[in-house]
Write a structure and sequence with these properties.
Length: 302
Amino acid sequence: MERKVEAELSNASKITKKATRTLFEQVIAKYHERLLGAQPSPQFPASYAEEFVVKRRAVIDKLITSVFENLPITKKAKTKLYEIAARIFHCDSFWGAASGIVIAGYGVDEIFPSLIDYDCDFRVDGFVRHKERRRMSITTETTSAVVPFAQTEMVSTFMEGIDPNLQNAILRGLESLFTAYSDVVKTHIGASGVDPKLIDQHTSILLEEFTKNIREYRRREHVMPIIDMVALLPKDELALMAEALVNLTSLKRRVTPDAETVGGAVDVAVITKGDGLVWIKRKHYFDQSLNQHFFDARRAST
């Protein structure tokens, strides 16, 4: 939609009020349609969107005036802006940065550990909007797993043998190559009676088969050997492996222009059914050598 607006503005010799209103309403309609198609967040009651507009209509009016200034806004477009404001909060699509929360461990009746990963982004009217990203449990069939969070590229590289960004670039390049080759074939032999649609169909099949084979190779030769070994590692070595993966991500962030969102001292803990949560390594907010009494008191209490 933004490209369409830019194209309209660059091609027009003069921007009329009618053209401005039309483009403005098209942009609003596009975002309105997108939000209406999103699923409502289960944390909110079904009537929340309507109640939100009633409660905050004056605030929304001020924001509309501040953002759109003198742009012509019809009554229909303004109604859609009200609904957009409400749906941003009410839908389960996260538009900005979200915080992740991971809950892992054992329930009272669980034999094997489980993990639930949530995204949360804000709290409004007593509701915390959150969305479950994944749920994983160890079973007799799934005996181990390595699950990265947040900045996952280095863990994925370690597990799969290839950087995910490099892999995506290769696949995009192959797709462009196959498409260009298909166009060349259609141009040179299309006149001989070969159906161009059949060429496109076979091109898609070949690319899909190549992608599938690469995916299966990664899993067979890289992922599964590590997963199988993780199932056999003792607890102390599992802790060392987890710390090493975090440090690997930290090192990559430190030596590249990317923001250092991973780094500093790393806390390491092991959770088991019998021992509960046990700290393997834990940083303190003070210099340990200057506060020996703190650790003496803790040892005395245990």
